[in-house]
Every structure is written in C-alpha cells, then in structure tokens.
Amino acid sequence: MPNTRPNPLLSDRDIAFHLFEELDAESLTRLPAFSAHSREGFELFLDSCRRFAREQLFPLYRPMDAEPPVLRDGRVRVHPRMGDLWRGMTELGLINAMRPEAVGGQGLPVTVFTLATAYLMAGNLSAYGYVGLTAGAAHLIETFGDAALKDALMRPMYEGRWTGTMALTEPQAGSSLADVRTTATPAADGTYRIRGSKIFISGGDQDFAENTVHLTLARIDGAPAGTKGISLFAVPARRLGPDGQLVPNDVHVAGVIHKIGWRGLPSLALNYGEEGDCHGWLVGAAGRGLPQMFQMMNEARLMVGMNACASASAAYHEALAYAQERTQGRPLTSRDPSSAPVPLVAHADVRRMLLRQKAIVEGSLSLLGYTALQGDLSHHADSEDARARASLLLDLLTPVAKTFPSEKGFEANALSVQVHGGYGYTSEYMPEAWLRDQKLNTIHEGTSGIQSLDLLGRKAVAGGGEALRLYGEEVARTVERARAAGVEGALCDALAAATDGLLSLTMEVAGRGLAGDVDGMLRHSSHYLDLFSTHAIAWRWLEQAAVAEEALRRGAGATDAAFYEGKRRAAAYWLRTELPRCAPLAQLIRSNEDSYAAMPVEAF
Amino acid sequence: MPNTRPNPLLSDRDIAFHLFEELDAESLTRLPAFSAHSREGFELFLDSCRRFAREQLFPLYRPMDAEPPVLRDGRVRVHPRMGDLWRGMTELGLINAMRPEAVGGQGLPVTVFTLATAYLMAGNLSAYGYVGLTAGAAHLIETFGDAALKDALMRPMYEGRWTGTMALTEPQAGSSLADVRTTATPAADGTYRIRGSKIFISGGDQDFAENTVHLTLARIDGAPAGTKGISLFAVPARRLGPDGQLVPNDVHVAGVIHKIGWRGLPSLALNYGEEGDCHGWLVGAAGRGLPQMFQMMNEARLMVGMNACASASAAYHEALAYAQERTQGRPLTSRDPSSAPVPLVAHADVRRMLLRQKAIVEGSLSLLGYTALQGDLSHHADSEDARARASLLLDLLTPVAKTFPSEKGFEANALSVQVHGGYGYTSEYMPEAWLRDQKLNTIHEGTSGIQSLDLLGRKAVAGGGEALRLYGEEVARTVERARAAGVEGALCDALAAATDGLLSLTMEVAGRGLAGDVDGMLRHSSHYLDLFSTHAIAWRWLEQAAVAEEALRRGAGATDAAFYEGKRRAAAYWLRTELPRCAPLAQLIRSNEDSYAAMPVEAF
Questions:
Q1: CA angle, residues B13, B16, B22, in degrees to nearest 5
Q2: Where does the source fall among the domains of life (chains A, B) (predicted)?
Q3: Looking at A13-167, which runs of residues are DSSP E strands?
Q4: How far is CA A142 from CA A96, A108, A131, A151, B253, in A?
C-alpha cells in the first residue's frame, strides 16, 4: 500500500521569507484596503492553512488518487472523505477569503492568500481544486452579475453550499474558443435556453454539496462568429423550481475522463439542454463573454502556476528527506568497501538534483508571490500611477508565472523520482504521483504554447513595450539592491547584461510584427518564453540573494544563517547554470531560424 | 477503453536510411564473420520483426499495461497472451539471433539486430524485455560458463524453453554493488548454496516458460569486501532433480513491485535459500563476477537506450498522426472565425514540438546504430587495430547511447502528450502510457548520474584520452564529408568548433583528476554528459545531413526528396537550437562552480 509519511509540503521558514522579508507583505496593511489586517492576522491565516494541509488534506491525497470519482446513475460520486475536506476548507473561509466583507469575505491580500494556499495545493491538489474553481466562478458573478444573480448564485458558492466551475472547452474546438458552438436562446422569462457540449470540466459534478454552477461560454442566437459572439452564462446543475426546491436543470454528465493525475478531481464531459430545458442566466453584457471570462482565466492561470510550484515543493521535500535517510555508496575519494555507506545527499550529483529542485520551487514561489503582489497593488495601491504600473506587470508576468512552474516543475518532479532511484518509479513511494499530477499543468488553462503567444504577441509589446520597460526597471532595482548588499558583482553584472539583451531582443522581434511579419515575430515564441522565464527566475533569485545578504550582514543565528546560505547558493546556481542559456536563446530567436516553421508536413 | 490505433512505431524509410545509407550495414557482409549474410537477408529479418511488432506486440501493449502480472500462490501470473508473444518471438529466433550457429544462432550483426528489434521494443517494451534479458543471461553463460553449464542452462534459454534474468540489486545496496551481501557457500557437489535477497528483478518469474535462470551476484564465503569479492552464479528457479524432473530450487518471489510503467514485465523481490537448499553454479572465475556481469550490463545499457528511443518513436508517430487529423484554430495571420479550422500541424509551435521529437528519435537511432556498429567491428573488423579502435568507441559511447535517449526521450514523450492537449493527459489516448514507461529508462541499468561518472571518470579519459581522440577523428571525418556534400558551411563550422571545445575541456577537467582532485574533476559530470550527448547527437545529425545532401545531389523522387528534406531540417534544428548550449555548458564545467557540491545539508 502507498507509503505516505509526514511531509512539510513547503518550508515554513521559506514561506515567511517570501512573504515578510522578500515581498514585505506587512507593508500592505498601510494601504486603506488592508488597514484592518496585521502581520499577526496574516500569520494566523497561514498557520491554519498549513495545519489543515498537513493534518487533513495530505493524508487523503493518496486515497483520493487511488479511488478516483466514478459516474453512477448519471451522477459523479467522489471519494467519501472529500465532503469533510470541503467543509473544512469552507470553514477556513477560503472561498471568499480575498473578497470584501460585503460579500462575506475577509479581504485578505492576494499575496498572503497565494502563499498560504500553496500548502493546501501541495497537500492535495484535487481537493483544493474545488475551492479554487468555486472562488473563481463566484467572483465572476460578483464582478459582472446583477444583484439578483449575486443573491441567487454567488452567495451559495461563497457560503460553501454550492460549488462552481468554468465551462469553456468544447470537444471540437479545444483551445480555440472562437469555435465555441454552445447556443443560448432567449426565453420569455428573461433567461436563456442553453444547448451544447463541454469537455474537460474540472469539478463538473460532485456529491458533497447541493449544487454546481457552471460559468459557461455560449453564443446567443444570431451572434456573430468568432470570439465577439460569445457571451457568459451562469448555468446551475439544479435550478430553483416553482416550489422553492432545487430541480434538475437539464445539465447531464456525459462521461468521466480517465486522467493520469489530479485524480481526485473529476474532469467531465457535460451535455446541456438535451431536453430543451436548460436555463442559463446571462452574466454581464452580451458578446463580452470572453473578456469577462478572462478575469477567471487569469486567476486560474496563476493558480495553476502555484499548483505546479506546490506539487514540485512537496516532491522536493520528499526527495530531500529520502536523500538524508537512505544510505548508498561511498564518497568518490573513499572507496574502502568496509567503510559505512553514506547518505544519498553526500553525493554531489544528488545534491545537484536537490538544489535544482530547490531553485525551481523557491524561484517559482518568489515569482508567484511577486505577481500576486502586483494583483493587490493593481487594485489597492495608493496612486493611479502605481495601480496602472502594477496592472501592467501583473499582465506581463501572468503567462510566465503560469508556465515556468508547470514546465520546470515537471522536470523538478522527475528529479524527485530520480533521487528515489528504482523506488521512485513505484507506487509504493510518493514521487510518481506528483509527477503524474504535474503534467496537466502545462496543458490546462492555456497550454505552454498558448502562453508563449500571449507573452510575446500581447504582453511583452503591450502599450508599445511599456510593461517590458517597467519590468526592466524592476530588475534594475534588484541589481542595485544586490550590489549594495554585497552580492557577488559577477552575478549582478550577468543579470544586468541579460536584461539589456532581453529588452533589445524584444524590440527587434516586435519590429517584425510592426513590419507586418506576424509569423516571423511569433515563430520562436516558445523559445522567447523560455528565455524570459529563465531571466525572470534569475531576477527573483538575485532579489532573494540580496535579502539574504542583508540579513546575514545584520547578523543571524545558526539556523537562519544556514537558511540564508541556501538562498545564496541557489541564487548562484541559477545565475551561473541557467542564466547563461539566455544569450544563445536570444541569438536563436534573432536568427529566426526556420527549420520547423517551414517544414513541409511530408518531410516529418 | 483504451484507444489503440495503428501506429507505424518507426518509419520504415528511416530505418532503411540508418542501416543502409548512413551506416552501410551491407558492407559488413564483406567481413568473414558475416559473409553468409546479404542485404536481402537483413531486410527479411527487419521485415519479420516489424510485422510481428505491428501485428502481434502492439495490439497487446495496452491490455498488458492495464492488467499487470500478479502474485498468486507464490508464483507470478503474467498476462494470458504473453505466452503467445514469447513463442512468436522465439520462433523469430530472437534470443540467439546474434550468436553463432554453434549455439543455434543466426550470427546476425548487432547493427542489424539493434535496428530491427527497435520495432519490437516500440510495439511492446515489456514483452520484448523477456527476450532481451534471456538473451543477455544466456550470453553470459556462453562466454564464461563451462560446457556442462552451457548444456544445462544456456541451451534451454537459447531454445526459448526457459527465460533468464540479471539479479544484481539488493534492497540495502541499490546501485552500490560493492555492498552486495548475498552469500554462496561451497557444497560437496561442487555447486554453491545461495542465500540472500534481490530486488527490482525484471522478469524474475513468469508462467509461460518452464524455468527462469537468475544470473546472480553473490559472495563466496570468506571473499573480500567490496567488488573484488563478488562472483557470478547461475541460479535457476527450478533445478534438475535426481529423477530428471525439474524441482524447486528454493528461490522465492517475495513481492511484486507496483511500477508506473513497463507494467507488463514484473519487477520482483526474490529471496534465495530460505530453506537452505538454493543451488547456484559458479559462472567463470571466482571474484570476477562484476567484470563478467559487465558484458550483460553493457548490452543492457544499449538495450535501454533503444528501449527509450523506441518508446519515443512510437509516441512521436502517434503525435504526428494526431496533429494531422485534429483540426484546431487558425493561422496567426488569418483569424477569420468563419474560415475552417486548420490541422494542429499547421501551427508553428506544434511543428516545433514534432521536429524536436523527430530530432531526438532519429538522432538517437543514429547514435545507437553507430554504437552497435562499433560492437560488430570490435569483434569482427579485419584488423587488430580496427577492432581495438571500435572497442574504444563502443565503450566511450555506451553511457551516452544509454542516457541521451532516456533523458531526452522522456522530454520527447512529454511533448507527445502536449501535442495531444488535454486528451494526451488521459488514458483514453496512448501518449501517457509511453510517458510512464519512459521514466524507468533514466534509472535502471545505472542511473543517469552513474552513467555520467562512467563517461567522465572512466571512458573519456581511458587510455590517456585515446578514445576521445578517436571520437574527435570520427567527428572530423563527418565534418569533412558534410562540407564536401555541400551542407551549409556554418553548420559544419559550428560542429568543428564545438569538437575543439569538448576535447580541450576534457583535457582540462581530466587534469584536475591527475592533480589529485577527483571531486573537482567529477563535480559537473552530469553537465559533461549533457554537453557530450548534445555534441554527439549534433555529430550524428550532421552525418545524416551529409548523407541526405549526397542523395539529393544524385537525384531523388518526390517522396525521397521530402524525406531527405526532413533530414536536412532536423539537422539544422539540432545544430542551431541545441549545439549552442555546449559553449555555456563548457564554461560552467570549466568554472567548477560549487553551489551544490559545497552546499551544507542544513542549507537545503
């Protein structure tokens, strides 16, 4: 049977570092929106999340992986203990923790929420998935719905009585939302009759809460083709009947998809309106479905980034513990076979694998935390200018913060398997499960390829390159801080040079688009995202190194000194091992090498 | 239920290219050892392998993955159809196809066998695994056993009546064979009594053949500690009893390990001698167990390389077919939503993923084919000098040919999932299964980390760098051939420069070892293997480009012209996208950056 042993999931010391030393979340309490909060309050929330993750969510991770939801009599039956987890998470106030008191929330900063919920994700991605989806769905109605809709559909979700989903993808269209075919026919009562099929609907049904609201993209009869004809509808699985009871709303589970990971969260095919009686409520303006849905999609993209980071973190801590307790072999310079074997962690190459995992995990945490902070500032900073600036940075970094943890987290999780050797390849140990989970993160909420088009085609060139200019300023600020703190000059110089390279490359590539060569501009978008991510993580590591250096100069006890030394070394690792990849990548993109772009299909 | 559709597994045109155009396998028939063979004979063998793979092995791949072997009443029960596959493969003469007629074989060149059996592996890794292991075990007895042992134990394996395994790993020792504890006590009858436990024994039991011979590492009582005290024993699961019947030999299946891939081939924990009556036969000389076993390990390492390459090939062909039939989205420059969607393969980034898979698969095939050719020449070339030269190259390239396809094959298989989008993540489609299979290949028969120590610590510096010098000569020959054929000069220059860089780096790093700093020499062994592999694959791609260019100059029909164009483009892709990674990697290794090597455990 699966061997689940205690796992910290994330390092508490590290989360405190990101939140209070690197990002200074306490300073948010000086903004009016967060003036009711305090560092102590943030720490209480953190503590309740981490305890719930370790004591409740993680022990049920393996059982939920082993017994995925099944379809019986048209309804999905989830793991019998999932209901307890749901109630526990709603009691923590997670669904509307970031929303204002007016809708029952706690008004927590995104920054704090993001780093706190990382524990929940690391403990049990699937179980937390219901919360994340429900929060996003309710938030859409909060933002775009009218008062009646909020009362009828948002409130039960925020109260944890109902769950929510996002229903975008259709079987024939996949990622191409312009091809959504689900229809919405106006009815006399002011609602719409929905007809169509959706697929890959995560959490699309469950049996622990009384209803599920599907935030659904559909076309009102007569709407134009393409994305401009798409509207957003709230479509509950059960609607309020004439007698005030919930009655079926003609939404049917057509099938459960057999996923290789995230197995506790069902992914469903749904049919709407088989009986012509599926009622949908328009959310916001007709034809504005896609831009509105992007509120949820952007939230979901950052959530996927943290899902990936959290999974990589749990796998890293598992490998770190295993490498210290499992003895095997001897140092290269001491081959005396009668000497005692050493722990795995004594071998340089095992330490390399562990440091790489650490660099990916904590680099991702830093980037995700920073991006979340821009989310808070974009709404609540004390000047219009500061809000606009944060908003641009948030948009720019969203595809990076989604994709880097997903792509490199998969590599990190594979390294966790590798550290476990043959055991890592068996379901008697944990790493293989996290590896399976991780692969989904490069696909859902926009594949890595789509994120790369978003980054290079939209975000990096937004406002004539204004977002990228701001990014350059932020990086320059970090370089100056690092120099002042006494971080090794060569590392500071390397990041500064790479930043110049990134900015000039972007201008050159954007110039192709301006000259009308859109294909040429976007041909190497994946390589551009790789370059940008590598740079962004180097930036976050230099920032972390600067913070660590400052702390060491102020003086630190032995435990803290070791922690900061780890930050220094992981920063050096990333800047010396990964940052040098940027120059050849830039050269490749600049060359516009066309081996694949112009490859005839018959030549494959 | 799993959807298995026809899949070519490998491209027949491509296999013919490697075998007859790139490696000129026909010229082997001019050597005395292969004089009875002809190109037509090779093609017949190829054809029977590919037909068996497509018609018999592949259709049973999913069923065997879905119903892995179980332990019942102390015996392993494999998939009920596995026996048919075993008989089919023995009828093809696979177990001793490369062995001489004297032991019932066909005396086929390793080169031909390697590329032909790639189909079998691509069709069903697990089913072929029994053949590969049995062949390796029988070959050990053929090489090191006496006449009686050959008659008693080798012959039934070569005849396909029994199977064989390699039994090295023990639970407490893992990769550290110096710590093997299994004991062998001399008995009055000249055999030994074996006692101990082994783990991860692939194919360690089955119910389709009448016996299994475990080639087992153990220590004779009183033997010295470490590897020098290890001897090799043949330990059958059942031995010949006094009445000429097979009787149990006190080898017990202690457990079946639950693997995430290769699920058709059981991986077992075995206990020897629980009743004090496990008979083992010494193979070869006492104390020579490890060097002798290396014959089988080296064969197995190349087999794992081809396992990985074959799995990546099947996944690549699946993605290529899917990308042509699945329509989604529109070209970047034609966003008219009323236009028809285009096939996935029309998107540049999908073509990037496919070309990367092709470059990994066909680059690996080329390297594995070349390495196999050195295997043939090391035994059968017509001069002592040529044999010695081939032997050095074979040794040098074995860790590379094992590790590159395993590490990059995993990435390629992940790309196959990615091309399939959300569907790729489900067990309704094939790619996830190949992804699971692939992860084992970086672990078994020596992890990637161990291969990197073997490459840098032994092979690259063997004979004072003689093997590496020969490698440099071979690469230089390719560069000259490519220049003469008219391959773009920049590509030739790039490989030549990278070769100089590799050779000078190796000398510098080896110098550290000579100066007594073994840790410093081997600190970046994984990066060195990465660099070496990237270079070796660039070399094989330039060779392929040269062959393609020559063929195009001679004139080719439309189908062949497209095929050669694919070779050109894949070569350009690898040399322009991957080869530039070598310079920063060399700089990193040269710098001897010590972030992880000197990382204190408490700083993680």
A1: 120
A2: Bacteria
A3: 70-72, 75-77, 162-167
A4: 11, 16, 16, 10, 61
- Å between A596 CA and nearest CA of chain B: 5
Q: Does B573 touch chain A (CB under 8 A)?
A: yes
Partner residues linked to A343 by β-bridges: A327
pLDDT at A283: 98
Pairs across A and B, CB distance < 8 A: 281
Cα distances (angstroms) measured from residue A567 to each of A84, A298, A371, A416, A553: 38, 30, 20, 20, 14
Average pLDDT for B475-483 = 98
Looking at residue A327, the DSSP 8-state letter turns out to be B
Question: In this predicted structure, what is the pLDDT of residue A575?
Answer: 98
Please say if the pLDDT value at position B1 is more than 80. Answer: no
Tokens of A576: 């010396």
What's phi and psi for A213, nearest 5 deg? Answer: -105, 120
Instruction: Check residue B4 and give its pLDDT.
Output: 61
pLDDT digits (tens, 9 = 90+) for B340-372: 999 999 999 999 999 999 999 999 999 999 999
Q: Is the pTM of this model over 0.90?
A: yes
What DSSP string describes A262-298? -TTS-EEEEEE-TTS--EEEE-SSTT-HHHHHHHHHH
**B521 to chain A: nearest residue by CA?**
A332
Phi and psi of B46, rounded to 5°? -55, -45
pLDDT of residue B333: 85
- Distance between CA A220 and CA A195 in Å, rounded? 11
Say whether residue B1 is in contact with chain A using an 8 A CB cutoff. no
> Taking CB atoms and an 8 Å limit, are B418 and A443 in contact across chains?
yes
pLDDT in tens, B13-24: 999 999 999 999
How many angstroms separate the CA atoms of B163 and A306, rounded? 48
Which amino acid does the sequence have at B254? A
Is B577's CB within 8 Å of A569's CB? no
A361 and A573 Cβ atoms separated by less than 8 Å: no
Which tokens belong to A517? 């060569």
Dist. CA B150–CA B124, nearest whole Å: 30
Pairwise CB contact (< 8 Å): A355 & B522: no
**B contact residues 502-521, partner A, Cβ 8 Å cutoff:** 518-519
What is residue B262's three-state secondary structure?
coil
* Residue B340 in contact with partner chain A when CB distance is under 8 A: no
Tell me, yes or no, if B351 comes closer than 8 A to chain A by beta carbon: yes
Question: Once rounded to an integer, what is the mean pLDDT over residues B401-424?
Answer: 98
Q: Please state the rounded mean pLDDT for residues B123-147.
A: 97
Active site residue A480: no
**Selected catalytic residue, list B170, B299, B407, B445:** B445
Strand pairing report for A238-240 and B162-167: unpaired
Rg (chain B; Cα; Å): 24
Closest partner CB to B332 (pick from A174, A519, A596): A519
Distance (Å, rounded) from C-alpha A466 to C-alpha A460?
Answer: 8
Give the rounded distance of the alpha carbon of B575 from its chain centre.
24
Q: Is A52 on the interface with B (CB under 8 A)?
A: no
Considering only the beta carbons, identify the residue of A332, A588, A597 that sits closest to B576.
A588
Of A351, A448, A519, the CB nearest to B348: A519
ipTM over 0.95: yes
pLDDT 10s digits, B270-302: 999 999 999 999 999 999 999 999 988 999 999
Mean pLDDT by 10 residues, chain A (604 residues): 74 98 98 97 98 97 96 96 98 96 96 98 98 97 97 97 97 89 97 97 97 98 95 98 95 96 97 98 97 92 98 98 95 85 96 98 98 98 97 98 98 98 95 97 96 97 93 98 98 98 97 95 98 98 98 96 98 98 98 95 96
Which residues on B lie below 8 Å from A603 (Cβ)? 562-563, 565-566, 569
For chain A, what is the total number of helices (H) and then of strands (E)? 19, 12
